[in-house]
Amino acid sequence: MPLTISQSTTVNVSDTVSTTGNKLTISVAATATEIAPANTNRKGLTIENKTGKDIFVGYANTVTATNYSFSLPNNSYYEMPEPIYQGVIFGIVATGTAAPQITEFV
Hints:
Radius of gyration: 17 Å
Number of helices: 0
Structural class: mainly beta
Strand content: 25-35%
Order of helices and strands: EEEEEEEE
Strand order of the largest sheet: 1-8-3-6
């Protein structure tokens, strides 16, 4: 549907552009683990899970393998949708540890 503006109005549209991708080296454990700290400069985040384990992701340190926001099965990839969440992100695995590839764009 087209946007109709009845008055002379200036509309500024800008894309969020990142110039830096920082690799976060994290080992996700069977207890809630911070996988990305809060960052008000975050413009994007990706997680690639090739760890052999499912990773359960949440936005509070109360995340569990049965109470989570979304799961990342082995051999999966996640790209954070817009609007970009800038708070802390936690992860957990059911047993053992997992080291996913995490990149935060700032």
